[in-house]
User: What shape does this take?
Amino acid sequence: MRNLDHGVIISIDIGTKGAVVAIKRPDIILNIYDMPTTPDGAKGRAAVNGPLLADIIYQTHASRAFVEFVGPRPTDGTTGAFGFGRSRGLVEGVLAAAGIPLVWITPPTWKRCFNIPPGRENKDVARARAIAHWPGQASLFSRKCDIDRAEAALIGLCGIKREG
Assistant: This one.
């Protein structure tokens, strides 16, 4: 078990399209990793790969993690809900095995930190907020598909702000 305080935190947007962001305090992005997936889910669907996720988390040498606290939506089918729960369990288990304390942050909480309205139609607002906050690293969020990277980064920044 290791819990070294190098001033590095990780933040995670759970899911197969999610991301892991390593942030050096106060808020310098060290690295962004797209959630590692392999086609081992139901019917060959993408699923978060535990060993690859563990490799990423151990590489960060983080002392704390902020993770989005989400669950399946009522509109999710059983396969999607199970896959989402599997992703959440893998994230929680890998962090526990690494000895990294975990703080859950709900979507309304981190979105309020950055004045992002609720709703799927406002997801790209997170990308705009991340670009505005890290203009020197805007290329990390340049593509439309980088929304989940932006959300992961903002989850971490909200956690840092809340801790003071």
